[in-house]
Amino acid sequence: MCRGVGRTPPALTMEAPVLSALARFSVRHRWWVIALWLLAVVGAALGAGSVGGSFSNDLTLSNTDSQAAYDTLRTRYPELSGDGMQVVIHSDSGVTSAKVKAAVTDAAAEVRGSQDVAAVQSPYGPGPAMVSDDGRTALATVQFTERAKDVPAESVEAAQEAFGPVREAGAQVEYSGAVLQEENGPSGSEAIGLAAAVLVLLVAFGSVFAMVVPLLTAVFALALGMSVLTMVAEVATIGTSGPVVAAMIGLGVGIDYALLVVTRHREGMHAGHPPEESIRLALTTAGRSVLVAGATVIVAILSLYLIGIQFVSALGLASAITVAATLLAAVTLLPALLAVFGAGLDRFRVRRLRFDHGTGQVSGWHRWTGHVQRRPWPYLLASAAVLIAMAIPLFSLRLGTADGGSAPEGSTERRAYELIARDFGPGWTGPLVVTAQFDGQESKAAVNRQAGALRTELRSTEGVQEVRPPRLDEAGTTAVYTVVPKSSPDDKSTEQLVHRLREDVLPDAADGAETHLGGTTATAIDLADRLGSKMVWFMSFVVGLSFLLLMVEFRSLVVPLKAAVMNLLSVGAAYGVVVAVFQWGWGAGLLGAEAGPVESFAPVMLFAVLFGLSMDYEVFLLSRVREEYLRSGDSSKSVRDGVAATARVITAAASVMVVVFGSFQLNDQRTVNLFGFGLAVAIAIDASLVRLVLVPAVMALLGRSAWWMPRRLQRLLPHLPGEATATATAGLHTPVARMSTTAGEDQRAGALGEPPAQREAAEGERMPQPRP
Prior knowledge:
The protein is built from 25 helices and eleven strands.
């Protein structure tokens, strides 16, 4: 009952015409909708099989020194401009034995004449030998004509097969290099995540049928999204981590979004609505929140394009495709599935059904929220202190790219890395390339003297293990050097060496020459520097965009600001935990991960995804709080009712995400492990400490001022379809008739967002009465 009005309050209007129409269509034509989805999934799978592309890493970075070095190689040394593959030969009896040496020489000759191969450097010459001091390990290099993303997999396999006889000669053969890019589609992690999600949903719903619907919706959406992603890979270069990260995010949000709509539908049926009407109400309330939240996730992820690095933006595109598929399934397939089960959705129960709101009773969530509201400052300060403490490791964040030492245990890349690092030195696992273009007017002898002097200067630089003799181009004006650091590619000292060479050594030692430093290691360092320099403004853009969206959604300036600050705290805490585990190595062994730098693109990618997902729970919770506030006008009670109505479903949704993301720790890619761990930690923090402690505490302190917005600004803001603009409501808990009010009435509600319920109490008899 509305305060001051001794009669049944009118119902809240949340009509979203498009969603309402979609709900009616999907309910009436449920079998056609399901059939269309089956056809879409099968058709997309067939399309992916026939015209789908492959996944490869393209680390092209415009306007960087490493890219300039590559451009010089492409112009002056076409045969060296492609990416390479290192072939490591090891034999305890020695690689200089006649049998092994003959097999290696024959293999190198065979590969040298292969398609897509520019050059092959035998470990025995001509040129500097590449045999370890103990004579047990040799290193051959296969140079391809193209960058890794353009080298056909068949050419790489043919080169590896050519070295097969070396194994028959009794030697161990391992491979490493940029061209060894594995395809990474869905793996067993998804199945484990689904199995864990089944248990969580069964506990949350207590009904087998209610558990099946979100899973079916998510699986259909994931199948469609992954097939579309494979077809997009034919026209766009998407990294090898793209499909796994996209599957992880798509599966998590797919189950989550369906769970939220199903929960609202069950609540409506519990209140007495027939299934068809309850489905429509669920889609126009929870479904609308899902669309707003999903749109926030997509916008945040696609904002990665603003960074200007194709590799990073392509990962965002992959994730956005699967999230878009889950939204489409949530507003079309999900209502059809709910209509099929109808009133029997809660059959085959495994436990007694429980509802925490709309029953007229005070639940445990009501009591907990009230407890926090009575002591807001202690809970606010304590939870904020915990989050800040967890975020402290973030200040030692070091971006980079993990080297072969972080490759999966037992892989050929890992074995090759260990052999090279042990017998040649860790720097040989990622040597640097220096190009120097001298004055073309000078004599060849003068260029040779300058090239030799530059080599001497490079060799004397601290941190350099070896510099191979320079190789001049045909014109005799450009030299290329192989510079081997003393440290591994992902070591901080290697990063310092690259900057020292660029800033101090090369400008002074090669006076008058145009010099550039490149190679795979330098490219990774340039990627980290570029992303590090753009992180702050990128994050500011995502936060600002989310702020504007929430301001329009909730008609408030304070709520979006609160959401931004809290989401930044939860994301910062997740970052801190990631740094502690994956960079410092705290407990990394328990996850099967190796300590090293945080992948350079991980922070921006994680921020885009995490901020979007955090906004999901913000929208779900505060949408319900605003409904209750518009109904009752009591800011304190609306928070208690809103938390009680959403806490169980948010907890269940977060649990699903945590187990799905956590299951990806079983993947053998360090990048995927890092993403899965970071997402799981962030969601757990956000759904527990933030939503159930910080939000009630802050809302208690803010009171009605949480909904403050200047009248003039409120008139300027657009209204989203289906926005709550009516007075009080009992209509979502009891099957009463609905009533509309205009957007203008809501705009006149007052500078503090005065709920129409209080305005109507004064209007008295002018308010029409709903029929029970």
